[in-house]
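job 3f2a | input accepted
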Amino acid sequence: MKKIWDKIIGKLRFLYSYWKSYVFGIIMRNHFIKIHAFILFVGYPRSGHSLIAALLDAHPNVVVSMEWDVLSHVRMGFKKHQVFYSIINDSKKFAIKEGNIWSGYSYKVREMWQGRFSEIKAIGDKFGGMTSLLIKDNPELLGKLGAVIGKSIKFIHVVRNPYDTITTMTKRYLEKKEHLKDIQSLDLLPFIKAYFDRADTVLKLKGSGNYEIFDMYHEDFIKAPQESLKELLYFIGVEPFDDYCEKCSEIVYQDVHQSRFEANWDKEIITFVEKRIQDYEFLRRYSFRS
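job 3f2a | predicted structure (290 res):
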């Protein structure tokens, strides 16, 4: 009985969000005229996507939702104005209701535009790890998204040392399951596969030559956030205001968290991952000790 009610409630919520976005999308359509780019994050969980998305959302000409899941909504029939309104609404909710806090971290940039905008020139959705899986399983969704929004799609590929990403993916999963223990190599194995499944998707996107993809290396960003952010904004096609970049840099971590040293990686597993890394040019800078 509970499953039936859950399905009914889920259907009612979808219908409500669909028609609400339909009406308000039409009302707000004049705000969408200057949009020239649609932003999608692609890559891996626990790599720093949330930080980059929150910083972009602080720009007066950029709106980014926090895991609204645009591809699934497009698959369910959402049209351009519905997508744009829903992303704006999600950005606003994240700023007001959540206080720009995600997974226990505050991404609030003082005196900037999170949850608001002056004139939208670029808009997008942050759901990097899941977006990679959706594209892997349903590659036709990208074509459908492009047809619906009618804008240039610009991918942001945030990359962190694979060993750190895999370790943190494992740690968060065990915490969710309340299996609090030291992480062993056997615990890491399913997340090694999950990581490289996503890397395969990125490799295919790059190999297709059909999309613009910006590689944002987490470690480089931590070292020089203002310079890295300016490069990203030029890629998106918006102005990198000095005041904006300076205030964004204030919330960036001082050091890179090397979570790989918090797990018990066997030498054989380290070697296996090192060999897999060589299959991807965008990962070859990394090793367990780097």
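job 3f2a | The CA atoms of residues 127 and 202 lie 14 Å apart.
job 3f2a | closed
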